[in-house]
């Protein structure tokens, strides 16, 4: 676990750099929202858990990192105020790519080595906090998608308020499975829960009574690098429980 922190952060860096390279090379904007979301989650996680711990070791470097994050945020804000067909938008995209790549190079060559002065236990703690924060943010974003009623083609087990429950639209065309209270597959006439798998098979949603006082459990499947993976190829998963109105329920 000692190197998990750096592996996790470098994976984030590489994913964002690849997305930016693809967008610039192809001169297209379709990945902008994904770039913005990944950058936002990554930067906020670093600022909340990583940078404060390294600040006493390298205040100058961390102050610079905060400033570089703010520069990236300002470019993104500028891009949101420019129509993507304008030349200025593409110029800003190239500027964002250069800003991110320069920041990543400094962070990995200076901040990471400095942070190795932290104890192994402290680095493990930071890695765990960042992983939990990022997973929670990703899971929390799913219900913000367009919500639709359960289609009539799905037979809903008794005990589930079918008329009240809505699901993100990405689930209504995916696989449907019926389960009992323990998550075992069951006949649809005896089931207490239904599991809907997203069309990309990277997340699924279980509807039915979930303790404590929940109705919906969202699960995200992850690779060993903490990136999204299909459930068949996942190394691990993270879940979050909501009530029928998608208010988070704490255990």
Question: Could you name the key traits of this structure?
Answer:
251 residues; alpha+beta; two-stranded antiparallel ribbon; globular
Strand content: 15-25%
Strand order of the largest sheet: 3-4-5-6-7
Per CATH, the architecture of the largest domain is: Up-down Bundle
Helix content: 40-55%
Number of strands: 7
Which regions have little confidence, pLDDT < 50, spanning 5+ residues?
none
Q: Write the element-wise H/E pattern from the N-terminal end onward.
A: HHHHHEEEEEEE
Largest sheet: 5 strands, antiparallel
Number of helical elements: 5
* Broad structural category: alpha+beta
What is the level 1 CATH name of the largest domain? Answer: Mainly Alpha
| CATH third-level topology of the largest domain | Four Helix Bundle (Hemerythrin (Met), subunit A)
Q: Going by CATH, what is the homologous superfamily of the largest domain? A: nmb1532 protein domain like
Distance between the termini: 26 Å
Task: Tally the structural domains.
Answer: 2
Shape, principal axes of CA atoms: globular
How is this structure best described in words?
The protein is of the alpha+beta class. It folds into 2 domains: 140 residues, nmb1532 protein domain like (Four Helix Bundle (Hemerythrin (Met), subunit A), Up-down Bundle); 98 residues, no CATH class. Helix content is 47%, strand content 16%. It has 5 helices and 7 strands. The strands form 2 sheets. Strands 3-4-5-6-7 form a 5-stranded antiparallel β-sheet, covered by helices on one side. A two-stranded antiparallel ribbon has the order 1-2. A hairpin with a 3-residue loop joins strand 5 and strand 6. Helix 1 packs across helix 5. The chain starts with a helix and ends in a 9-residue tail after the last strand. The model has no long low-confidence stretch (mean pLDDT 87).
């Amino acid at each position: 676990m000692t190197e998990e922190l750096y592996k996790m952060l470098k994976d984030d860096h590489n994913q964002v750099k690849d997305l930016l390279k693809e967008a610039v090379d192809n001169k297209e904007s379709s990945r902008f929202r994904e770039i913005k979301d990944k950058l936002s989650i990554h930067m906020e996680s670093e600022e909340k858990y990583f940078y404060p711990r390294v600040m006493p070791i390298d205040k100058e470097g961390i102050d610079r990192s905060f400033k570089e994050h703010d520069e990236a945020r300002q470019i993104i804000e500028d891009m949101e105020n420019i129509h993507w067909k304008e030349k200025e938008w593409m110029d800003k995209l190239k500027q964002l790519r250069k800003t991110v790549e320069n920041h990543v190079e400094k962070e990995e060559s200076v901040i990471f080595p400095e942070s190795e002065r932290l104890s192994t236990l402290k680095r493990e703690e930071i890695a765990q906090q960042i992983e939990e924060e990022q997973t929670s943010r990703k899971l929390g974003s799913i219900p913000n998608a367009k919500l639709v009623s359960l289609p009539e083609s799905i037979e809903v087990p008794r005990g589930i308020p079918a008329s009240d429950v809505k699901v993100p639209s990405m689930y209504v065309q995916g696989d449907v499975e019926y389960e009992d209270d323990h998550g075992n597959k069951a006949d649809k006439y005896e089931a207490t829960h239904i599991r809907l798998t997203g069309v990309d098979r990277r997340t699924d949603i279980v509807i039915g009574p979930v303790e404590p006082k929940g109705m919906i459990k969202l699960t995200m499947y992850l690779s060993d690098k903490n990136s999204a993976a299909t459930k068949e190829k996942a190394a691990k998963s993270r879940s979050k429980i909501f009530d029928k109105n998608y208010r988070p329920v704490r255990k």
